[in-house]
Amino acid sequence: MSHNTFGHLFRVTTFGESHGPMIGGVVDGCPPGIRLDMDAIQSAMDRRRPGKSRHTTQRREPDTVRLVSGVLETEDGLLTTGTPIGIIIENVDQRSKDYSKIADRYRPGHADYTYDVKYGLRDYRGGGRSSARETAVRVAAGAIARAVVPGVTIRGALVEMGGDKAHARDWSIIDDNDFFCPDEAAALRWESRLDEVRRAGSSVGAVVEIEASGAPAGWGAPIYGKLDQDLASAMMSINAVKGVEIGLGFEAARLSGEENADEMRMGPNGPEFLTNNAGGVLGGISTGAPVVVRFAVKPTSSIRTARRSVTRGGEEVDVSTTGRHDPCVGIRAVPVGEAMMAIVLADHHLRDRAQTGERS
Amino acid sequence: MSHNTFGHLFRVTTFGESHGPMIGGVVDGCPPGIRLDMDAIQSAMDRRRPGKSRHTTQRREPDTVRLVSGVLETEDGLLTTGTPIGIIIENVDQRSKDYSKIADRYRPGHADYTYDVKYGLRDYRGGGRSSARETAVRVAAGAIARAVVPGVTIRGALVEMGGDKAHARDWSIIDDNDFFCPDEAAALRWESRLDEVRRAGSSVGAVVEIEASGAPAGWGAPIYGKLDQDLASAMMSINAVKGVEIGLGFEAARLSGEENADEMRMGPNGPEFLTNNAGGVLGGISTGAPVVVRFAVKPTSSIRTARRSVTRGGEEVDVSTTGRHDPCVGIRAVPVGEAMMAIVLADHHLRDRAQTGERS
Amino acid sequence: MSHNTFGHLFRVTTFGESHGPMIGGVVDGCPPGIRLDMDAIQSAMDRRRPGKSRHTTQRREPDTVRLVSGVLETEDGLLTTGTPIGIIIENVDQRSKDYSKIADRYRPGHADYTYDVKYGLRDYRGGGRSSARETAVRVAAGAIARAVVPGVTIRGALVEMGGDKAHARDWSIIDDNDFFCPDEAAALRWESRLDEVRRAGSSVGAVVEIEASGAPAGWGAPIYGKLDQDLASAMMSINAVKGVEIGLGFEAARLSGEENADEMRMGPNGPEFLTNNAGGVLGGISTGAPVVVRFAVKPTSSIRTARRSVTRGGEEVDVSTTGRHDPCVGIRAVPVGEAMMAIVLADHHLRDRAQTGERS
Amino acid sequence: MSHNTFGHLFRVTTFGESHGPMIGGVVDGCPPGIRLDMDAIQSAMDRRRPGKSRHTTQRREPDTVRLVSGVLETEDGLLTTGTPIGIIIENVDQRSKDYSKIADRYRPGHADYTYDVKYGLRDYRGGGRSSARETAVRVAAGAIARAVVPGVTIRGALVEMGGDKAHARDWSIIDDNDFFCPDEAAALRWESRLDEVRRAGSSVGAVVEIEASGAPAGWGAPIYGKLDQDLASAMMSINAVKGVEIGLGFEAARLSGEENADEMRMGPNGPEFLTNNAGGVLGGISTGAPVVVRFAVKPTSSIRTARRSVTRGGEEVDVSTTGRHDPCVGIRAVPVGEAMMAIVLADHHLRDRAQTGERS
Hints:
Four copies of one chain form a homotetramer. By secondary structure, chain A is of the alpha+beta class. Chain A contains eight helices and 19 strands. The first copy, chain A, has helices at 38-48, 100-103, 112-119, 135-148, 184-199, 227-236, 257-260, 330-356; strands at 5-6, 11-15, 22-28, 35-36, 65-67, 71-74, 77-80, 85-90, 153-161, 164-165, 206-213, 241-246, 264-267, 270-273, 281-282, 285-286, 291-297, 307-310, 316-319. Chain A has a five-stranded antiparallel beta sheet, covered by helices on one side. In chain A, helix 1 (38-48) runs antiparallel to helix 4, helix 1 (38-48) packs across helix 8 (330-356) and helix 4 (135-148) crosses helix 8. The longest helix of chain A is centred in the C-terminal third of the chain and has 27 residues, at 330-356. The first copy, chain A, is globular. Chain A starts with a strand and ends with a helix. Chains A and B meet through strand 1, helix 3, helix 6, strand 12 and helix 7 of A and strand 1, helix 3, helix 6, strand 12 and helix 7 of B.
């Protein structure tokens, strides 16, 4: 995990900026003979796509995915060949406005300052490389990863917005509201709340939950190859994420050993856990129970209210953001979190198969 | 970050089980000419050492570190040579009791089951590789890492135990109590609390906070080389950790964009942040403000109360742990967290120097 | 070095097949602020381009390089930003002939059989991923790498063709003949020889020499980070290469210690080597003398003469190749070898700077 | 492959200098449940051990290997557990002579100068990290690797010494002479030749051949994960190696396409190659035929004849080596080459299993 590549065996490398001609990436190490469904991939893209509802940025991107290598059209459908899969997504709506005004002023809470300090220059157009636009490639890669672990079901939800929690986990309604919210009542509350926030030119944070069921016990590895460690790394790599937890997470720190440890009994298919406080991971290795990860997304710093900042030249200024933006970036982080979960699991499936052979 | 190696340029590889003859590791990629102070390294070891107080496991290990390669005694002291530094720590008190009874039964909340499923066999003596004993090597490696980034001050504290928070951050008293607690009142409360817990054969969770000040702006990188991503990975790799957050972390998800984003003004040495909600990282790159990480440690699952479990053979049993153990493993996780912070920063210092040259 | 990524810090990932819509890659880890000259990059491409003379394959590819990310047009020219550089090269002349005939028969000496055994399927069109077409991306990446080590001069030559050696090393005439031959007399001999070979539908092997001067002493590292080790890896990764040597190479095995070791004396700028049998590398680290690598390129297996083979279905057949091909693939391997040298040196420059700081 | 770690999944990390208390390493990623035979490991060590005959250095090292982690004594013998295997080999005969004289003078052909330039200091005692002593750890790791690919037979031979070739390949006599020579007549010639060389205080180079039979078709991968690429990297990482070739190697560059490409026919177990000019690798992937690698070892630069050199301080001096040394370091490189072959094959076996599943 370094530079712009994620994964040890199933490896995803991305490139591209918000306002260049295209973004894209390479999925390397994918097993051969995996059947890909372009419609499924495009559907995954559509879930993350900007401009889907009034609650996300109004940038209009079709986010049409092209796989330009590593696949072969056969009688059995579109199959991976085992060679690197090139992913291309064109930037369509990069709005050629004048960015010179923000080129030299640092938006508070954004990466403008740190990029400038690190690199001495930056592509300021639309946030450049730090734009969430890069996550489109992750979603495409994640859709391929899902096909590598077909027995695993991955689903994500927004479980908290602006401090208001979703209490239910009704996965069937996730795609029926604009928030990937698993709680009908919460979805209604959030709708009016977010309308307010948007009108005020403000923003709110959120918590996303990703759950993967169907992964066998045995994926992951001790010490520095832990499944939860790579999940933490994966989720923390998403824009605006400030915290990650597995299973009960921080809540576990408030329990006693008696309350926290999941007891076991024999089930019809072998050992079973009676609870899943561990979130499906013990000692860095999957237990067979659903893998559960939650991550905190900060409110986007693109807000209308003027905030104190400085320019590249050292002048003190006030900065406000008037362009299109997401009032709650957490929403579109849901499919991105699902994609990262899929990528981590595909990688660990291959790593486990390498060391211990085929796991039935 | 894979297998038993952590880091991209400053790389730490560890080996060893709880009950083998020794544990150890290799620090690879260390710059040459770094002066090491064996007393300082040993002091770091002593802070993590078991048996220091009645509040930690009574296993007695001197944890004497030997550096068997990669260093040279010179007129200027003990200097690194740039070649791999071999670290050896002997296991002294591995108590040759009969472990056959637990060899085939899975302690709930432990990695017994997952190791067995994954590998088909496991070194069950004292937890084998999943024992926290491995973290001794991290502390030694972390002490070397600190010498690589001498301008950075790293300190850690237990900031919550069993749900009871430390409200103050008085770093001067950290080593005056048995908990690395930065709040005198809390330390008193925890003392009696932990006595109770220990007598009851129970355990409690904790939250650890690590702060690094003095790191310049510019360390880290976008996308999959983010500083906070590697910190999340580093902390989640520590035994029993279930959550990690940067800066305000999950709390940031409950704020508005106005409240959360750190404003900037010009200070005597350039741009300054007026607050540090971001925890010293924006866009994956350090801001120059203190880097702040917190992680949640679950209560150890080694408790006296019998819990339902199964055996390797599929028999349902009750398991309780009567041997020596830590009633709050979070305590000894403090120096481990500091070590991982040092390792991540040393690695990112080198990575940044590689790409952008010497940063004054 | 694994999968389709080369390099540890300056990392090149490539994708694409001979007959897909495009080939491309990502250069990751490039320092920021490096000025790129698109004309220079295109010139490098043109040297490798097929169809330049009658002595190379008649496939016509403009090999126009597009850098779609990681660069910014500024007043100071086109500068790298430190983020991944996306490289796109369209396939233009992929000739839509019927490949079904060779889809199930293994051309002797080609990778058809091994790809099929490994992956269970393969993109047979034009050799798919095993086609030398992939090397176009390396040349583009190499042109970027050269800009990272501007003090280094890299040049390559064909020094042997079909067993006939070039005895002179007149670098000034390299681009004046169709073979990158540094020996005028040899170039004349090779011309008629290759005309014969081509008319006979046969092919010949070759030896390529790459020399890099201007690299400082101190690049490289011991044991598994040796400069010559990475050069061997880099050159052996080029299609059809079967051997690599550094300095005197295999000839050194025939000398005595007295003859082989390069003596030293003080020169105007410090220690100097009186000879360069070592090829600029001792103990895996550059000496400051020119780095010299040679590699052997086998004759292409695409020949008109029928050769015995088998089909995918297990039928014994005779196979001959009638399409366009290179009678001496070694020729176009020269710019590819130069590119790989540049990539290795750029990577080691960054690795050395990481560990030991700026080297003046 | 970087720093002091070799391999992607089966990973070997080494540490230690010639004159420290011990050398050692970590084998990480080894599959669990592999039965290790300590006698076989020690036998492998003994073949490389110094002081075995008058033809190698007279340093006396028992080279006793201890595996201090990652293995478990069971009813089925000593089994790997899947966790890192710690390897410890004590240095016994590091002769406490005064090295101060060579501390500041650069022995021609040695890495003294380059280490000093790179690191600013070096452990000069006995060559420090650049000593061939490090290769003992490789042999131990290689013995473990062999157990990971039990169907593969690896054997090595010295096939040329001081320019005098062994023409036969009688593998049965390899261990009957002091040179691992597969040609009885050559062994006799080399014996008297090497006696002369030793008496003269001179040295000679050599060529080593390593052959692995029994590896299935399908190991390796295209582009930067080529089997032959990793073999080149592995062999070039051995001290004093200056060239590597696969199959016919440089000789292939002198053949026509008709002569070089191996024809195929159906054999009793499927497709077969009628010749093996390719050395068992096509397109970076194993063909099922024996994998054949040769590498050139330069004559050691430790010779009695005075050679011109300089000191650290810039003084011109003459340097000769009077201590114990190998007159032909190529001899002891044979078991090291075998070990590296085993490590590469074990790694690629796991990598192949990861991507394509169990290969029968």
